[in-house]
């Protein structure tokens, strides 16, 4: 079936010279809290701004903590045909070819050790495993609180053996009483030399392969396109976006971002429900 919508996405095979200088050749956007509104749709104004920028010759790369299986429907809705950075940088996905260019997994023995060290301080944790692969599911222990809303395959109430049975990209970690700030602080202090620790949502942290960030995945994707951080404007709203905002020439935090994210950015845009991405892009690319 032919899709009549304008296509977005930075496609490796399609390198087009822009008619005149571009302010930025690459636009990198987080999804949740940034490109997506609270109802998880993309506003018409934001769609128009991205279409205008890509028609001028800029590339757009989605950079998200979501795995490919949890991102694919958003890419389809955008008419996106290029490279996407998923799984906190661990998956660089060629949308048109439906293949992974990179797939970084978390060593499960290391992850077990990290969880044990954290639990020695906090007491029992509730885990969910984000399995590797293009069609990986999230396997959740009993009591894991999720907000996946049917967007990704979820295996609930899994036993301990099932959590650790297959290769994983990362673990989601929750605690009954600790906030994400408190839990992340403990995790970094006692297990930060073993795994990466990021805050990506309320009451939850993620344990990742050490050294993996959105910036590492974005840098790889940009390199495939002959671009780098100096060519990039990046948008994000959570602490896991800070490496990407630092890597880009111009980092934009959303209005609802925590103070630490705003401090890392070059400017603060209106909120995702006010088409903040579009407001900034229109200033640079017209609209």
Shape: globular
Listing every helix as H and every strand as E from the N terminus to the C terminus, the arrangement reads: EHEHEEEHEEEHEHEEHEHEHEH
Average the pLDDT over all residues and give the rounded result: 91
The spatial strand order of the largest sheet comes to 8-7-6-9-11-10
Percent of residues in beta strands?
15-25%
Structural class computed from helices and strand pairing: alpha/beta
Instruction: Detail the poorly predicted runs.
Output: 1-7, 12-19
- What's the number of helices? 9
Helix content: 25-40%
Give your account of this protein's structure.
This protein has 287 residues and is of the alpha/beta class. The protein has nine helices and 14 strands. The strands form three sheets. It has a six-stranded mixed β-sheet. The protein is globular and about 55 Å long. It starts with 25 loop residues before the first strand and ends with a helix. Residues 1-7 and 12-19 have low confidence and may be disordered.
Question: How is this fold's topology laid out?
Answer:
Elements: E1 26-29, H1 44-55, E2 59-62, H2 68-78, E3 83-86, E4 91-94, E5 99-103, H3 108-122, E6 126-131, E7 138-140, E8 154-155, H4 160-163, E9 168-174, H5 180-191, E10 195-201, E11 204-209, H6 214-224, E12 232-236, H7 242-247, E13 250-254, H8 259-264, E14 267-269, H9 276-285
Parallel strand pairs: 1-2, 1-12, 7-8, 12-13, 13-14
Antiparallel strand pairs: 3-4, 4-5, 6-7, 6-9, 9-11, 10-11
Helix pairs in contact: 1-9, 3-5
């Amino acid at each position: 079936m032919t899709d009549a919508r304008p296509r977005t996405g930075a496609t490796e095979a399609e390198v087009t010279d822009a008619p005149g200088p571009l302010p930025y050749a690459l636009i990198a956007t987080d999804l949740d809290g940034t490109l997506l509104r609270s109802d998880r749709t993309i506003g018409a104004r934001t769609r128009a701004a991205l279409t205008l920028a890509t028609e001028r010759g800029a590339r757009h790369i989605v950079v998200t903590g979501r795995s490919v299986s949890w991102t694919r429907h958003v890419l389809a809705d955008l008419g996106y045909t290029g490279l996407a950075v998923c799984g906190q940088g661990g998956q660089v996905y060629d949308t048109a070819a439906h293949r992974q260019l990179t797939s970084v997994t978390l060593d499960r023995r290391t992850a077990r050790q990290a969880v044990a060290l954290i639990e020695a301080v906090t007491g029992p944790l509730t885990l969910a495993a984000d399995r590797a692969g293009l069609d990986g599911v999230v396997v959740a222990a009993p009591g894991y609180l999720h907000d996946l809303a049917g967007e990704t395959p979820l295996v609930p109430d899994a036993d301990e053996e099932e959590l650790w049975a297959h290769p994983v990209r990362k673990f989601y970690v929750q605690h009954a009483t600790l906030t994400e700030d408190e839990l992340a602080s403990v995790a970094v202090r006692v297990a930060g030399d073993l795994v990466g620790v990021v805050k990506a949502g309320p009451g939850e942290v993620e344990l990742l392969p050490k050294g993996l960030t959105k910036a590492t995945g974005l840098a790889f994707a940009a390199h495939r396109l002959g671009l780098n951080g100096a060519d990039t404007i990046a948008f994000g709203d959570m602490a896991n976006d800070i490496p990407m905002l630092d890597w880009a020439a111009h980092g934009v935090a959303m209005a609802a971002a925590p103070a630490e994210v705003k401090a890392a950015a070059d400017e603060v845009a209106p909120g995702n429900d006010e088409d903040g991405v579009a407001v900034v892009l229109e200033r640079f690319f017209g609209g």
